[in-house]
Design a protein that fits this description.
Elements lengths: L1 H17 L8 H13 L3 H14 L3 H17 L3 H15 L5 H14 L9 H16 L1 H6 L2 H25 L3 H14 L4 H15 L5 H14 L6 H23 L1
Length: about 260
């Protein structure tokens, strides 16, 4: 037993004596190693090198370069939840750099890649919309090159649809006040979306279902017909208007009697 232990200790000693301590890498050395890994699409090792380059950086230029490559490494390896704070940190510190537009674009695309279905959390869509809208306002030419207006329209429709989904849910479970607030929000903030037409229609239906609220229902139905004369709800609204006017007339006749 003692002989086996001695052999093991001697082998371990030989192993550790052959293991050289890892050399301390400067920011430049880490950057060069990181770029080599990056070019080979070995992003995990590149990330380690760029992180070390940031910690060892003695100049803002080196730190900025390493931070951007770090964010790009996360982005290109589709590690979007990690790319988002990496790009955000770059923009917070180096927002006026010549690479800021690209960083902002990829920040938005990282959010965009994480978007889930309309009945789920929409924070990713909100993040993407904020990034793309900021970039379009900052540099319209750059925005046009990457067709960000189309993405902004898509995202606004997506967010409006989410609000509509929640509004209808609240109305369906008999919590109308919460639902109405969502409809108001759509009408106020998302007039340029498809959900705007739906919100006006749902508002009209909500009031049409209540005795004594016919005038409110008529107001929303009339507004929808006026603003969207080709609305998909035209036939149903025509029927609703006839029924509502008939109810109002009957009530007036009853009062007169």
């Amino acid at each position: 037993m003692m002989k086996k232990l001695l052999v093991f200790m001697l082998a371990a000693a030989a192993l550790f004596s052959c293991t050289k301590p890892q050399p301390h890498l400067t920011a430049d050395e880490s950057m060069q190693k990181g770029l080599n890994y990056f070019q080979k699409k070995n992003y995990d090792d590149a990330i380690t090198m760029f992180e070390n380059s940031i910690m060892e950086a003695e100049s803002p230029d080196m730190a900025a370069k390493a931070q951007l490559f770090l964010a790009d490494s996360y982005f290109l390896s589709k590690r979007y939840p990690e790319a988002i704070p990496a790009y955000q940190q770059y923009l917070d510190v180096y927002g006026s750099s010549e690479d800021a537009n690209t960083a902002l674009l990829r920040l938005g695309l990282s959010h965009y890649a994480l978007i889930d279905k309309v009945d789920r959390d929409m924070s990713a869509a909100e993040g993407a919309l904020k990034s793309f809208s900021t970039l379009r306002e900052k540099d319209p030419g750059f925005s046009k090159e990457y067709k960000l207006t189309e993405k902004i329209v898509e995202l606004r429709n997506m967010l409006a649809d989410r609000e509509l989904y929640v509004a209808k849910f609240y109305i369906r479970i008999k919590e109308p006040q919460s639902g109405v607030k969502r409809l108001d929000y759509i009408i106020e903030r998302y007039k340029d979306t498809n959900a705007y037409e739906d919100a006006l229609y749902e508002y009209g239906l909500y009031y049409a279902a209540q005795e004594g609220k016919e005038n409110d229902a008529l107001r929303y139905f009339n507004q929808l017909m006026k603003e969207k004369p080709d609305t998909k709800y035209a036939k149903d609204i025509a029927k609703q208007l006839v029924a509502l006017l008939d109810r109002v007339q009957k009530r007036l006749d009853k009062k007169g009697a």
